[in-house]
């Protein structure tokens, strides 16, 4: 805003100075002195605090009038912008500053009345436009500041949620450990302690009462067997199924891919996922990750990627397909060669197709 006003004043000062050069009747030293004084006042106007603005503007107006009376009528051309600035300090109306800037035309020398009106219109329009864009810029900056504050709050919430999730996961692990240790202590520990007591008693009675000792040993065997069964039951409940580990790990990788890249990626699973072994899940995960990376590098125009895991009667079919332009001739790089090698290691096969988009299909045999 200040730059617009200063530029306008410099233009007017330059215009007046040029006119003085071609008029021999003007007292050049006084004209230069008044112009420099006017310029210094307006520099101070934009450097000092707002409470001094009215006084400096009134001095500028007085200086313009003094210069017009004693040196040249052209000094009146400096009045419109000072009037516009002064009235904008008191009111936000757009018409009043223009009217106050035009009113002095009745007291201006007739030789410059037309120029005065043009200057008044020019200064009003440029000042108003500058003020409009200045307010708009300030509004945009306020919005940006508000968005930055909101972003900082959201980032803090994300970090807090992440920390809470990590703490919750850690607490869950601690609670699970405590539950398992308590269960082992209550069930298995008591069983083993009881079996140990029975065997100690059988040892002492072996020479005195073999039948009783045999009975005690049989009881100890039964108690130990119950303890072993309890251990197996606990471990079976703790251990997740192959399907849960494989599918969840694949979903996690896809979710990480979605958060990092702007591509719609969907996973569909069909059939009995329990028939996929751990080693097959490892190969599937590595091949899907490599296929996603290749799609990101070479299928630039693709917007979505479909991942389909289908367990059939005799084989497992995993397809990663995008909707890009595809490729007429597929050149095998290190990524595709690596997929073929690890798939062939477990008697599988890789099929590459670039006719309709680009797809990588992994075929693995069902292991009985």
UniProtKB/TrEMBL annotation:
TM region(s), chain numbering: 5-22, 28-48, 55-78, 98-125
Keyword annotations of the record: ATP-binding, Kinase, Membrane, Nucleotide-binding, Phosphoprotein, Transferase, Transmembrane, Transmembrane helix, Two-component regulatory system
Enzyme class of the recorded protein, top EC level: transferase
InterPro entries, A to Z: HATPase_C_sf, Sensor_HK_TwoCompSys, Sig_transdc_His_kin_sub3_dim/P
Catalytic activity annotation: ATP + protein L-histidine = ADP + protein N-phospho-L-histidine
CDD domains cross-referenced by the UniProt entry: HATPase_UhpB-NarQ-NarX-like
Domain of life: Bacteria
EC number of the protein: 2.7.13.3
GO CC terms of this entry: membrane
One GO MF term attached to the UniProt entry: ATP binding
Domain Signal transduction histidine kinase subgroup 3 dimerisation and phosphoacceptor residue range list: 176-242
Protein name as catalogued: histidine kinase
Organism of this sequence: Virgibacillus phasianinus
């Amino acid at each position: 805003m200040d730059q617009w006003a200063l530029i306008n004043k410099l233009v007017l000062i330059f215009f007046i100075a040029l006119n003085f050069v071609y008029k021999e009747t003007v007292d050049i030293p006084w004209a230069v002195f008044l112009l420099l004084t006017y310029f210094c006042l307006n520099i101070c106007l934009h450097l000092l605090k707002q409470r001094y603005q009215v006084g400096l503007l009134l001095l500028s107006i007085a200086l313009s009038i003094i210069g017009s009376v004693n040196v040249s009528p052209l000094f009146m051309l400096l009045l419109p912008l000072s009037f516009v600035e002064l009235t904008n300090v008191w009111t936000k109306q757009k018409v009043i500053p223009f009217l106050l800037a035009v009113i002095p035309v009745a007291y201006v020398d007739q030789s410059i009345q037309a120029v005065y009106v043009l200057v008044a219109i020019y200064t009003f329009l440029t000042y108003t436009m500058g003020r409009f864009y200045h307010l708009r810029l300030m509004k945009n900056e306020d919005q940006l500041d508000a968005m930055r504050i909101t972003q900082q709050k959201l980032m803090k919430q994300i970090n807090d949620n992440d920390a809470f999730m990590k703490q919750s996961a850690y607490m869950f692990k601690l609670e699970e450990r405590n539950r398992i240790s308590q269960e082992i202590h209550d069930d298995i520990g008591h069983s083993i302690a009881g079996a140990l007591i029975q065997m100690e008693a059988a040892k002492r009675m072996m020479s005195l009462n073999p039948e009783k000792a045999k009975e005690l040993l049989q009881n100890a065997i039964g108690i130990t067997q119950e303890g072993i069964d309890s251990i197996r039951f606990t471990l079976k409940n703790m251990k997740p199924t192959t399907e849960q580990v494989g599918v969840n790990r694949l979903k996690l990788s896809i979710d990480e891919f979605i958060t990092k890249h702007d591509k719609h990626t969907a996973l569909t699973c069909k059939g009995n996922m329990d028939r996929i072994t751990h080693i097959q899940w490892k190969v599937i995960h590595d091949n899907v990750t490599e296929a996603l990376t290749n799609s990101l590098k070479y299928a630039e125009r693709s917007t979505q990627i479909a991942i389909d895991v289908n367990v059939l009667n005799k084989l497992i079919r995993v397809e990663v397909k995008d909707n890009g332009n595809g490729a007429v001739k597929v050149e095998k790089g290190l990524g595709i060669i690596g997929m073929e090698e690890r798939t062939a290691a477990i008697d599988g096969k890789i099929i590459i197709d670039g006719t309709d988009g680009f797809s990588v299909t992994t075929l693995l045999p069902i292991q009985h």
